[in-house]
Amino acid sequence: MTAATDPRPLTGEPVALDLLNTRWVQEGVVLDLFAGAGAGLSRVEGLAVWLRSTGLDDRFRADAATLVHLLTAREALARAVADPADPGARSLVDSVLEHGRIRATLTTEGPGERAEFADPAWGPAWTAARDYLDLLGSGPDRIRKCAGESCVLHFYDVSRNGTRRWCSMAACGNRAKASRHYARTRER
């Protein structure tokens, strides 16, 4: 059986934001990779696509328990990104983080770290929550929601001057430019 392709319009963001981007809008309809995304996938097949896309498929299994925990993490992260000051959102992210820990190790290359989980089904959820902490530590102001009017996608702005506004210039950026152009020509 060949692996299903990832139908999402934006991939490759840091794991925390990539998890949020498993929901997107296409032609006015909200799609969810973990609900089949209109691509004829089962929920667990959608999870397998996401694990493969993020490179986590070599460490974690796509199964129902993992999906439930990942959906919990997605909701916690969505709330935290929408309102970082919300104590309830912080509590939800913390509850996901309680399911894993970092163990210091000594490797042939020197000091290292390894994530450990009492229940491996929490691994992807914990990894996404931990990634969110890393993003907050390196540049919380660069965690952005696309400025597209109907877009729900998120990205981490790695542009030099930190002025990225769109999930994609080819999609949302182009739509905004075309809309402004249309409005200007109508005024004339």
Which short descriptors sum up this protein?
alpha+beta, 6 strands, two-stranded antiparallel sheet, 188 residues
What does this protein look like?
- The structure is a single chain.
- The chain is an alpha+beta fold and 188 residues long.
- Helix content is 44%, strand content 15%.
- The strands form 3 sheets. A two-stranded antiparallel sheet has the order 1-2. Strands 3-4 form a two-stranded antiparallel ribbon. It has a two-stranded antiparallel ribbon with strand order 5-6.
- Helix 3 runs parallel beside helix 5 (123-138) and helix 4 packs across helix 5.
- It is globular.
- 30% of the residues are buried.
- The mean pLDDT is 91.
Number of strands: 6
What structural class do helix, strand and pairing data support?
A: alpha+beta
Quaternary structure state of the chains depicted: single chain
Strand content: 5-15%
Strand order of the largest sheet: 1-2
| Rounded radius of gyration (Å) | 18 Å
H/E element order: HEEHHHEEHEEH
Alpha-carbon distance between the termini?
A: 57 Å
Most strands sheet: 2 strands, antiparallel
Query: Could you tell me the mean pLDDT?
Result: 91
What general outline do the C-alpha atoms trace? globular
**Low-confidence spans:** none
Helix content: 40-55%
Number of helices: 6
Task: Provide a short characterization of the protein structure.
The chain has 6 helices and 6 strands. By secondary structure, the protein is α+β, with helices and mostly antiparallel strands.
